[in-house]
Amino acid sequence: EVQLVQSGAEVKKPGESLKISCKVSGYTFSNYWIGWVRQMPGKGPEWMGIIYPGDSDTRYSPSFQGQVTFSADKSINTAYLQWNSLQASDTAMYYCARQGVTQQPFDYWGQGTLVTVSS
Amino acid sequence: DIQMTQSPSSLSASVGDRVTITCRASQSISTYLNWYQQKPGKAPKLLIYAASSLQSGVPSRFSGGGTGTDFTLTISSLQPEDFATYYCQQSHSLPRSFGGGTKVELK
Question: Does any CB of chain A come closer than 8 Å to the CB of residue B55?
Answer without folding.
Answer: yes
